[in-house]
């Protein structure tokens, strides 16, 4: 399975995977307006591959069923809150 990957110029570390290059027909218009103008990154073959920030099986399933996969960055850890919690636990 091939897919095309685009990055958002509005949202850091946010990527959109679609089945066919430049075919955003399956992507909701609200998502596209939030995502901003997509910047093409690459076309990749998903079989036998691992992805850095996403589960390849979830990506393939989303591409088959929904027509796209949105990869968002993990939530930022609040280091001050983590420090306070660690200190309180001791």
Envelope shape: elongated
Largest sheet: 4 strands, antiparallel
Alpha carbon gap, first and last residue? 50 Å
Name the strands of the widest sheet in spatial order: 3-1-2-4
By secondary-structure content and strand pairing, the structural class works out as alpha+beta
Number of helices: 3
Low-confidence stretches: none
Proportion in helices: 25-40%
Give Rg in angstroms. 17 Å
Overall pLDDT, averaged? 92
Count of β-strands:
4
Secondary-structure element series: EEHEHEH
Sheet-strand content, in percent, reads 25-35%
Report on the structure:
The protein is α+β, with helices and mostly antiparallel strands. The chain contains three helices and four strands, in the order E-E-H-E-H-E-H. The chain has helices at 29-35, 56-65, 79-89, and strands spanning 2-8, 15-18, 38-45, 68-71. A hairpin with a 6-residue loop joins strand 1 and strand 2 (15-18). The radius of gyration is 17 Å and the shape is elongated.
In short:
The protein is of the alpha+beta class. The chain contains three helices and four strands; from the N terminus they run E-E-H-E-H-E-H.
Walk me through the topology.
Layout: E1 2-8, E2 15-18, H1 29-35, E3 38-45, H2 56-65, E4 68-71, H3 79-89
């Amino acid at each position: 399975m091939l897919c095309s990957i685009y990055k958002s110029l509005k949202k850091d570390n946010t990527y959109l995977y679609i089945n066919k290059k430049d075919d955003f027909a399956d992507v909701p218009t609200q998502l596209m307006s939030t995502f901003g103008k997509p910047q093409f990154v690459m076309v990749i073959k998903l079989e036998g591959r691992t992805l850095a920030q996403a589960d390849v099986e979830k990506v393939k399933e989303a591409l088959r069923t929904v027509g796209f996969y949105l990869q968002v960055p993990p939530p930022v850890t609040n280091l001050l809150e983590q420090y306070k919690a660690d200190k309180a636990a001791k």
